[in-house]
Each structure stands twice: as C-alpha cells, then as structure tokens.
Amino acid sequence: MEDSQVYYFGPGMSKNTLVSVERVGGKGAGLIQMTQLGLPVPPGFTITTDVCRYYYQHEQTFPKALTEAVCENLARLEQVFDAKLGDVRKPLLVSVRSGAARSMPGMMDTILNLGLNDETVEGLSQRSNNARFAYDSYRRFIQMFGDVVMGIPARAFEEILSEFKKEEAVLSDGELREERLRELVVAYKTLIQKVKKMPFPQDPREQLWQAICAVFESWMSARAIAYRKINHLDDKAGTAVTIQAMVFGNLGQDCGTGVAFTRHPSTGENQLFGEYLLNAQGEDVVAGIRTPLPIHGNEQSLQKKFPTVYQELLSTAHILEMHNRDMQDIEFTIQNRKLWMLQTRRGKRSAQAAIQIAMDMVAEQKISKQEALMRVEVSHLDQLLHPMIDPQAKKEVIGKGLAASPGAASGRIYFSPDIAEEKAKLGEKVILVRMETSPEDIHGMHVSQGILTACGGQTSHAAVVARGMGKCCVVGCSELHIDYKHETAMIRDHKLKAGEMITLNGSTGEIYLGSVPTVEAKLDDRFEHFMKWIDEVKTMGVRANADTPEDARIARKYGAEGIGLCRTEHMFFDLQRIDAMREMILSDHEKARRHALEKLLPMQRQDFIEIFKAMDGFAVTIRLLDPPLHEFLPHTQKDLVELSKKIDISLTRLKRKARSLDEFNPMLGFRGCRLGIAYPEIYEMQVRAIVEAALRVKREGVQVFPEIMIPIIGDAKELKMLRAQCERVCSQILIEEKETLSYKIGTMIELPRAALTADDIAQEADFFSFGTNDLTQTTLGISRDDANFFLPKYVEAGIYPADPFVTLDKEGVGKLVQTAVRLGRKTKPQLKIGICGEHGGDAASVDFFAQSQLDYVSCSPYRVPLARLAAAQAALRYKA
Amino acid sequence: MEDSQVYYFGPGMSKNTLVSVERVGGKGAGLIQMTQLGLPVPPGFTITTDVCRYYYQHEQTFPKALTEAVCENLARLEQVFDAKLGDVRKPLLVSVRSGAARSMPGMMDTILNLGLNDETVEGLSQRSNNARFAYDSYRRFIQMFGDVVMGIPARAFEEILSEFKKEEAVLSDGELREERLRELVVAYKTLIQKVKKMPFPQDPREQLWQAICAVFESWMSARAIAYRKINHLDDKAGTAVTIQAMVFGNLGQDCGTGVAFTRHPSTGENQLFGEYLLNAQGEDVVAGIRTPLPIHGNEQSLQKKFPTVYQELLSTAHILEMHNRDMQDIEFTIQNRKLWMLQTRRGKRSAQAAIQIAMDMVAEQKISKQEALMRVEVSHLDQLLHPMIDPQAKKEVIGKGLAASPGAASGRIYFSPDIAEEKAKLGEKVILVRMETSPEDIHGMHVSQGILTACGGQTSHAAVVARGMGKCCVVGCSELHIDYKHETAMIRDHKLKAGEMITLNGSTGEIYLGSVPTVEAKLDDRFEHFMKWIDEVKTMGVRANADTPEDARIARKYGAEGIGLCRTEHMFFDLQRIDAMREMILSDHEKARRHALEKLLPMQRQDFIEIFKAMDGFAVTIRLLDPPLHEFLPHTQKDLVELSKKIDISLTRLKRKARSLDEFNPMLGFRGCRLGIAYPEIYEMQVRAIVEAALRVKREGVQVFPEIMIPIIGDAKELKMLRAQCERVCSQILIEEKETLSYKIGTMIELPRAALTADDIAQEADFFSFGTNDLTQTTLGISRDDANFFLPKYVEAGIYPADPFVTLDKEGVGKLVQTAVRLGRKTKPQLKIGICGEHGGDAASVDFFAQSQLDYVSCSPYRVPLARLAAAQAALRYKA
C-alpha cells in the first residue's frame, strides 16, 4: 500500500493527477475527471480499491494510515464547502457511494445525507430555511442507514411510512407535512432501538466509518458475487468508496435531478437524450414513483424550464464526449438552478446505436476508423442480423429453454418433420418441436420458422443446424414433454396440440403462446459501409460453413471469402439420394457398393457445380464423408420394413447389418477417414464428383479452387494413403479430359493425436483446418450430445468459464491448437491453417485464432459479419 | 559408400577387423567371427547391406567399385582354396547366401554349388573321383539356379525328376545312377531353353553376378515384405550376400551335415543338442525327407560315429558360447571326416529354457545377473504363468478368434451367465459363450474356465476382465453365431448346443472340439530366485489392478507392491448389491439416494477391510465410482419388469428414467467425477467406507495406506471441489472416532485436457495415475469397443505399429504422458506418478513408462511378474 489510499477531488486539486480506474473505480474516475475539466462537481474524495482488497486480506480491518487520510481529506472538504461534519450550525452532509472498476449496476450499496443527527438536522433546517426538507432528508438517511448499515429490512421502514401516509390520507411521501416527518424520525429511531437493541448512531464520524464498512461489505454480498460470476468479473478486484459533499435536488421547485445520454442510446442520434425530476433526490428517479420529464421536447422539458442549466448541460456533455471520445451516460442534480455533475460513464447502447455513434464520431474526427471498429461489440452484429420479438408486444411466457439461435419465430407446432414439411407446402408457417433432432429431420427443419427441442445444449444437432440455417432455435427446454403418439406436448401446465401457434425467442430462450409480432432486422448502407472498414483492417480470412448452393449464396452476401467447410454427407439425406446411399452401405461387396455409388455420382457432381458457381473466385473446402454409416440407416421397425421392400433386401439381413454397424461410442467409431480407408470407393466417387464438377464450371469461365479435406486423421500415414488415392483419381480424370486443375488436399485437425503429430501430418497436407467441435469433445472427454447432464452445472460452478462448445477452451484445446500450428509450420512455414468448427463464429474464439496466427476462420453464413468484425478487432489488438 | 563394400574371411584375415552385424548381416557376422576365432570355416567374402541399399536407391544397379572388389576377393579365395571359378581342372564351387541383420528365416534365397557347368562338372568329377557326386551337384545347382535366378517354378524340375525316378523305379534322388543324372542335367537344360528361350548360363562369372542380383531381389519379394511388416522390421535395412567356398557333406559315408544348439532349447539343459544327416547337403536337413540322427545318445549318433568330429564340435560350441556369451544355434558340414562350420547365431528358446540358461550362465560366470535379466524376454514370463494346451495332444480346430488372454481352458459351453453359474455350482467346468460381455455378466465369467465372444477386440470387456482374472479368453470370433433363444451356436459349419464340451487356446485364439489336455504352468524355486534378481535391479514399482480380496491375494503372490487400481464399481454388480445401487440411481431426491447408499455402505466397507488386510503394508489406490449410471440398470423388458416389482417403481417411470440416462457416447458422457459433482452423496459414501475400513484394520494392527483416486478429471477445479468434499468426510470421521490416518487424494490423468493442464491439477493432487485406456481412446479418437471395424486393418497396414490399446502409442499418447509428468513435477517435484491402464502389463509400454520417470506401473495380477521383469530391464537400459 505505497500509493495514496485516498484521492481528493474539488477546488485546488492538481489537474495532472492520473489515477487508474482500477484504483478509484468507475465513479471515482468520472468525478476526478470532471473536476479536472473544471465542471461543477461537489467536492469529495475516493478511498481506493486497494483498501478494499486490504480489508478482505486482513480479516475485515483497515490499513493504519487510512484513518488519518480520511480525516485529512474530510477536513479539506469541510474547508472548501465551509461546513463541518457534525457541526450544528453549518453541518456538512455527504454521500457514501460504492464504485468498482467494472460497472455492477445496483449490486452494491450507497448512503445519502450522511452527517445528519438530532442536532445537525436543526442546523440544516435553519441554513436551508426549509425545515420540511431537513426532516425529509433526515428520515431518508435513517431509513437508508438502517437498511444498508444496520441490516434492518427496508420493508420495516416502509411499513411505518405507509402507516403515516394512511393516517394523513396522502399518497406520496412529498405530501407529508414537517410535523409528521419529525414524528416519522422518532418512529424510525424507535424501530432501530427495538430491533438492534442500540440507538441510531448520533456521531457523524461513527456514521461515516460504519458506512464505509458497509460499502466494502456489500462487495461480498451474495448478489454481488453472483453478478460477478455471471459476468466473469474478478472477485479480488474490490470496490472503491467515494465520500462526496451532498447537493440537494429536493430543496424546492428550482431544484431537480436527472440522467442523460450524450447521444440517443437506441438510435445513436447525435442529440442529448434524458430525463429529470423536479424537487427530487437521486433515488427518486430510480424508484420510478413519479414520471420523469424529458430533457428537451415539450414545455416541461429542462430545455424550457431551465434554459441556462440546459445550455450548461449541453456544453458539459460536449466537453465530456470530447474528452472521453465516446457517448456518455451522465447524472446531475440541480440545486437552486445550479447544475452539479454527479457521474459520467460510458453509455450502454443498442447495436444500431453502436454503429451509428462509432461512424458519426469518425465523421466528427473524434475517433479513428480503427477505434470505431473496436467500439462495436461483436455480439451487436449478431443482434442486427436476426429479426427480433417486438419489445412492445404483449406476450405470455409459457416456458423457457436455452437460447440456441437468435431471432424470433412464430408458427404452428408439429412434432414430425414429415408433417411439418407437408404443412409448410400448404403455406403454413410451422415450428418443429422434437425431443431432439437428427440429420433425418433436416427437411423438416428446413421448412420451419423455428425449432424447439426438449433435449440438447448449445451445440446439439438442432442448435448447430439451426444456427447454420440462420433459423431461430430454442433447445434443451426440460419443461417440455412430448407425446409423439398423441401429437401433444406439455410445457409447465400448458397442453399444446399439433397445429397450435407459438412463438420462440431465440435470443432469450423464451416460448410464448400464440403469435407475437416481430421487428425485422434491416441491413442499411451504413452497415455495409461499416463492414467495408472491417475488411480494410482485418488480416485473417473469414469463410463460411456451407453445404448447399443456397448456403453459399447467403455466405457471399454476408461477405464470406470462400467456403471453409462443405459437409458432403448432408447432401445424402435428400429423399432421392438416401436410398442409393443405403444401398451402398448395405452392400457386402465392393462391386455392389460401386454400383450404388455410381447413382450418387451425378447428384453429388451437380451439387458441387452449383456451389462452385456460387463461390466463383473463392476457395471451396469440401470435406469427404465423415459420419458413421449407421447414421444413414433407418431405425424404426416401420422404416426398416419399407426400406427392405424398396431395395429388396430381407428384413432379417437388413436388421442384422444395421445392428452390426451400431456403435457404443459412434463419435469415436468407424467414421471419417476410417471409412475412406476401409471403402476406398466412397472417397473415390466423391473426389471424382469434385474434379468433374470443377472442370465443368472451369470451362464455363468460373474461377474454381477446390480443396479436398479429409476428416478424423490421427496419423500421417492415414493421410498419406488417402492423399495418394485422391491424387490417383484426380490425375486419371485430368488425363482423360486433357485438362489442368489447381486443387489442394488437406486435413482436419480434430483429434488430439493429430495436433500432437502435426509435424508429420503437415508432410502430407496442403492445409490444416481445425475441427474444434470434435477436438473439444476428445480433449475434454465430453460428448456434446450428452453434456447436458452436467455441462450447464459446470459452467455455473465456474469449472469452465464458458460453454467450451461455444467459446474455445484456451487452456486445454487452445494448447493443442497452438501446438499443431507450431509443429505444422515447422514442417511447412507457409502451411495454410484455418478452423471450421462452431467456434469460428464466436468472438472470443476468433480473437484466439487470430492470436494463434491462423489464416482464416469459417463459420455459419449468418455469423460471417460477426466473425469479420471479431477478426478486425483482433488484427487491431495484435498488430503490434 | 566410403567403407569397404566387401569383407573377406578366411586364412590371412585380420583378427581385429570389426564389422557391424548391420553391415554384413547375421550370417556374415557369424562366419567372420568364427574365422577370427580360428574355427574351421570355408573361406569366403560378404557383400555388405550398404550395397543392397545402393542397389534399390539406384534403379537396381551396383556401385561401380563393386565389380573390382568382388574380383579381388574371389581371386583371394581361389588362391587360398587352390581352385578357380570356372577352371576345368580345379573348379572352385561357391554358395551364394542371403543374410540380413535381423533373422528372416526362409524368407530369402540361397544358391549352392555355383560354378558348375558342362566342363567344370568333369573337373569336379575327376578331382573328387566321384562322378555321381559331381553330376548330383550339377543337377542340384541347375535346379536351384533355374528356380531362384531364372524364375522357373521348382515344380517343373521336380516333375522331370519324378519322371526319372518312376522310370528307374527308385524312391529317393540318391538312388539315381550317374548315367541317369547326366541325362537329368540335359533334361533340365532343355527345360530352361524351352521356357526362357535362352540356354542355362555356362559362364560361372555370369552365374555369380546373376545369383548376387537374385539374392538382392529376394529382399523385396512379396513374402519377405510381408514378413518384415508382421515383425516390424525395416524395409530399408537390406540384406548382405555371402559368397563362400563350397564344402560337401554329400561326398560319401564319411560326410554329413547337421544343426545343433549349444544347450537344450526347450529345457535349457547345458548339453549340446542337435541332429545330423549322413552323406547329405544342407538343404536335405531342411527338406525333411530323411530322418536325421541325434548328435549324441545312440549308436548312430555323431558322438559314436565320428567321435573326433564330435569332440571338435563340443569344443567349438564351447568357444562360441564363451565368445558370444549366449546359447548358439550352429550349422556344420562334415567333409571326409573334417568339420566345417557354416553358421552360428543366437538360439531361440522356450520360456523355461530362457530362465534356466540365463541363470546357469550367471553361475558359470559367463554373464552378470544384469545380463541374465536382459536375456529373458518379457513375453516368456507370460507363457510360464498360464496353463498351456498340451502340444502333443490331438485336436480338432473348429474356429479361431483373437487370443485375448493366454492359457487354455476346457469346459461345457453356456450362453447365459446365470446358467453358467448354476452349472458351475453343480461342479461342472463351464465356458461362457457370448456375443460380447458386459459388467452384468461378471458372475458368469467368474465361474467359467474360459470365455469366448463373437465380438470385441483385445481390449473388449471380455478380454480386459478375463486378463484381470487370469482366465483364458478368446474374443472377436467372427465365425461364431449365437442363437440365444435356442441355446445353440454355429462356428463355421459346426453346430454347438449348450452343454457341449470345447477347449479354448487363449495363446493362439484357436477353438477345439471336446476337451484337449493341458499342461500346467509351475513356478519352481528357480523362477522365484529369478524374480528376486529382478527386484534387486528394478527402480520402478509394480502394483496390481485388483478389485476383490481374492485378486489382492493373487497380486501379492505374484509380487505386487500394492494396488494401483481398485475399481469400486465392480463391487456393485454383486446380486445382493445391484438392487440397492439401482434404487439409488432411480431416486429423484438426494434423501432417497442417501437412503439407498446407506445400504451399500457396510458392504463396501467390508470389501475394503478385506482388501486392506490382504495388502497389509502396501498402498491401496481406490478409484471412486467411474462408469455412467445406466450401466447398472437392466436393459431387457423381462429384467425391467422384475426390477420394477422388486423396488416398487412403476415400469413406466423405470423405463423413462433408464431412457433419460441413455447416452450417445457414454465413454464421453456423465461419468467419473462428473457424477461425483452432481451427486456428492455417492462419493461421500465411498470415502466413508474407505476411511472407516482403514480405521478398523488399523486397530487390528494392519498397516494401511489408502489412496483415494478421482476419475475423469479434466480441470483442476473439479479436483479442488471433490478433494475438499473428501477431506470434509475424512476429517469428520477422524474427529468422531478420535483417530489419525495417513491417506492420499489424487487423480487419474485420462483425458488430454488433464495432461495439458497437469501443472494446475498437481496443485490439488497428492498423486497422478495415468488411465491410459481412456487416454488412448480420447487422444486417438478411437472407442475401443468399436475399434474392431477398422483397427485390425490399421495395424496390418502399419498405420499404427501395434494395437494402441495393447502397446502404448508413444508418438501421440506418450507425448501427453510426458507432458503431464513434466508439468506435474514442475508444480510438485516429488509428485508420485503411476499408470493403471492395461498398458501397465505390456513390456514395451512399461519400458516407456520407466523412461518417462514414472514411480510405478499397475497391471492385472497375473501380469505382475512380467511387469516386474520389464521394469528391471528398463532400469538396466536407462540407468546411465
């Protein structure tokens, strides 16, 4: 504790004192800054967060020097203000306020009007010539002190106050007469004596120290701890305490108190925006008992009522913006037409406002383009891109799940993808409701407005696919019970039948009865302009995960620079194709498999032709078949019987085959390149489709850059074998067709062993792409499909700082990513490395990938703008 | 190619020339050594393996200098032998033999009698005064050369030879008269001319160069490549070629040829042991046409027939043993009562012989104790410990699976563990035959002599448990089809009914019809003595994986120094316990769970009491509950109905609960410490049982060292939480009982993330124990239960050098092991680190663990001696 423990602000303070917000908290820093700028701030002093940390490290005691420092600063305050704490004639009143470095709104305590006692209240009365004001202040103080410091529930005081108002037959506190307020003070003091067996402290110094303690104690209140846990704030940071001379907005009709934003926080419009109350103290605005008046706009506005104060406020706002180079959220009090500033801080704003303000400030030359990019939160872009529930709309919440894919969707519920598809064809808006979804439900998901599931987490099939589709989705609603047989569902005590209308809020996870109106997201020119700035700055590429030509077109629209992951297996679930796929799987001989694959070849080729066209000029990374074969087989008796008839295989044989393919842990089973090695004909067909498609579009003038990606590689030898096989097919076609084609063959790094042996694997690979979904599953030993049992609790308990399937686990998976990058580039310094897991669309993860020197991230088309911004911010952060 | 490409051996060679076996091959090295020792060796010279490598690196051409070097050495040979290659009067004949550094018996080619042509054969005839011998040699040469060098199938020559014998009405080649042999030579040459459209080469130099080429070519023959793949030999090593003057064992009745071991290769007895043939050439012994005679023992023996030669052979054997300090396998030829040595190499031997010879040689002061330890192969001990199929017995092989747990077992087959148990109680010897086994089958496995399954690999449940039990087991017999309903099975075309007798060979995977006699393994004093030597040397501890008091007793018998893994869950499968366990699982509330757990507490405590007693003086590492809860629930409708009645839960609720616990990838699911965190009461009960048991036995004077091990830790915070919880329970009991107890709390390292964050985890752990089974599954992304689809092919294709569930994958998993050791000891330099996966019983893995500075390995009780030897060998290897 070498630095000063207490910082004074007020007349005579140095303009050069620099104190970090970490030490004096956000509130203290704002007050010090405003004082230094010569703005009207009631003088005061701030006890640093160091003292709070000391307090908790030393069994709730203060450092020795603190008493003296507080006394000295108090003396200075008294001198400046020409008043004395506890002085009967000229009593100084102070506020004692909490203020941590990171804002924790409403989480910690504040005490106003400290310094009043049975004697000073009289002095205040005489000095203000307003006895009612003095006793109103006194009763407010006792109430606050009793609650915050002495631990008597606020309710107890409220009950007495209500009693008084009832007796007087008045509605508001303000209507109580002075005599009654005097009696109220007595009643409050009696309450305290009764409950605490001790009197309300009359010594203002004792009041002060108890209040300081109480503020420190509130740092460790249950709700403050919970808030910090949720917001990933450090429990050790501590709070500062600011003791400030009171100014009064409740001295009469030429007084008031208010809050304002220097620009509009929803639209971003460059105009002071706020509200104030006449004849009121700060807490009245928050309490919301009286309707506040606007800062400008009507006859009651501050602009009209106090034009001078208004002008001063305007210029103050201007000064603060100039100085802080950002939109500010300010608090002020007017005492007898004099403006006092009580707080300034960075103002929170909507997505739209964030962009508007950032771009305006660039135009105003307040900030640089780079700063503007850092000002917009990545999650803001996400908000902008999805339609939202109209916040004004009335709605009945019937349940809540996990907010898996943002946006809003209304539709009639159906429990079967087939029926959903059928109804959608008739023009109905539908919502697919399932226990969980699987690749076989894709067609039903595709036609739905939104998806609701009872099981699964943020990375369940439903969540991943819905985000990929940019569709609203709520998953893991454990209150949801579905009776497929009777086509009904229960949520809490609501019984829902098929065809009933509900609305999902994918941004909050809420489920509403009926159709709730939504507000469309619109991407204006400003947005496009902003995105251009992003691309000027970012160094890492952003691609999209896109499986269809439609996906590819959307990805282009959102600025994707290629496809980082095209999953070929989704192409096989189409009704016309799945049978050929199944025939292939059920064949016992290579010849029969080849026969079935020949049916798939033209379809797959056509897919690639369209995707290549949509991605003209950009690379398209195509992953060869990855999932275990049993995923393609039907599972119900009915479907099995049907398939048996259709492809003419006995039901017994069909079942036996299906059973033989069943796996205990399919995630770690017979999939990816393991299939490619066992059945070379599958990958051969796929490579043929890719190369033939590429040659076809090339002839049409399309610039095509196919990248063949081989999944689940664990050892360089696997890749060597498959690479040779792919190259053989490619060469054969190129020779046959007398053509040339530039293509790449690379691998996913999605197993720990691949990361650990990346130097060897790089020998065989033209590129790496991290499959962080599987890499997370294997590194953490957590199946994302089964994680719902425990992972939410783990995140809640802080074992993992965030869902590792949403934000990359840097400590574990991140180490493997960096190991693989280091080893891979040791072998090939120019090795192209990307990432195509879900994490490619998460801001914190994108930041990490940029730091890890990746060449690109790939994410779902709808998250491309978000990833672009995150990449730009990372580029600015690490450009040193 | 700076070193000499050719090494001469014979009169006048330097006694100091040192040539590595890598360069001159095993055969060349033996001949050079014997020559240097002054033993009677026909002179010759060896072309190094460098030349072979050059040959393959330079499009099958020789280095320039080779021609000259061969000429020079040939000239020296001719001078020494007073004969000339191709000389009509004094023709030199040579053999051209392959010889790689690592023995590849029978895989490459050899040519004898080279140098003969239509003219030299006459010279040989005159010089030997034996025309029949000369023409016999010539026809042998043409036949061998035609086959090996010219690629004419040996069959073609054999057919002509048969024709001749038929015409003469003789049975053996030796009976053909000289005239007929002359005609045979003509017939052979005609055959060659006809097939190859060129004459048999008459120029001996051309013969020589063609033969050298042929030997090099045989290095890359399909069978040689296959052999090297199976035996993990390097394709790049190449073979040497030895050209040696011929001596003849087929010159008459004072000639012969033979092979011998300097000690008995089966028993280890210190006596020359071998066989010889009169009047024969080397290949006749191998061909096995005539019955060889013993070296000593009867009237026909070498000892009796050629006492001088025998004495010389005895002293030669002695010299070679003295020099090589190991039992030798030698080849010799007797030409006119003169002994010629043709080969010496390390002799292969049985397990028993290996120990006997090693110990005898220590007694004879030939080798040190340390060398003796290195001489016994670890796998030998394994052979010694299991009863074996009598190799003499007649047996009908009806099928073959994977040899999962060595030994032999005969019994009546049953398809249900319950029936197996029932029959065993009646005194029947039974073999459990299942599609696969699960923990619910344990009781049936326990009473069986052996286990046979249709599915699963070397690390399937059946294989692992059987090895743990020291029981013979054959798994993954894909030819086996079971019809549970009718209690029959098909293997190939054998239909087996319940109750039929079969025999399993757990060392080969073979399945025999009926009861095949076995030979008991016996551990004699010699074995015990040898094990004592081991313990003097080894520095790494060896513990056992033991779940029951019986296991613990066996482990002690085999020298385990504690238990490294006691799996508590196996204790719950007992019939009396499983219901309480199920009740606990099916409870919806903590209170109900605690109630059920209270029933389990005394049983679990009793288990620990007995295990602690059996391990008096040693540490016992107890792993808290690990498997997912659904493993404890029944799965068939019948069992579900029964359970529903027994514990009074509606069938619907029971089924719903069972379904809700089902997992997609249970291996990566809700298990291990994740259960402990979700249901603290489970681990609390287990810790209570451990501590109470420890205190109980401590009072009885037992030295008890419990180590509590927490599974599936992925992050230090999990361990921190659970450690605190365990310590709370411990302290509570110790305070209640006014006792002290020294215990440890540690964790398994079985997830990549745990290895990567081992520095943090070490903060909370008293010890680490690698769970290499799960670590292998997650690092490689391979579920061992599902690996059968592809892993065998992977090992065959050389993608993994060995089954990674048998021998630790050093490149991948090994890196994580070493990372965790480094990080863990960075935090706690004295951190105790062990390993308790299946790999603890594999010699190559144990070697790696010793190298990685682990404190101990833990393996199944029956593999303890094996691990002790492997640990001792590693200690010797890395003591530098």
Oligomer: homodimer
Biggest β-sheet of chain A: count, sense, barrel? 8 strands, mixed
Q: Please indicate the percent range of residues of chain A in DSSP E strands (runs of 2 or more).
A: 15-25%
Alpha-carbon distance between the two ends of chain A: 33 Å
Largest interface: pair, residues per side: A-B, 48 and 48 residues
The percentage helix of chain A is: 40-55%
Structural class, judged by helices and strands of chain A? Answer: alpha/beta
What does this structure look like?
2 copies of one chain form a homodimer. Chain A has about 900 residues and is α/β, with parallel strands linked by helices. Helix content of chain A is about 45%, strand content about 15%. Chain A has 34 helices and 31 strands. In chain A, strands 12-22-21-14-15-16-17-13 form an 8-stranded mixed sheet. Chain A has an 8-stranded parallel barrel with strand order 24-25-26-27-28-29-30-31, surrounded by 7 helices. A 5-stranded antiparallel sheet of chain A has the order 1-2-5-3-4, sandwiched between helices. In chain A, helix 6 packs antiparallel against helix 7 (about 180-195) and helix 19 (about 525-535) packs across helix 34. The first copy, chain A, is elongated. At the A-B interface, helix 25, helix 27, helix 28, helix 30 and helix 32 of A face helix 25, helix 27, helix 28, helix 30 and helix 32 of B.
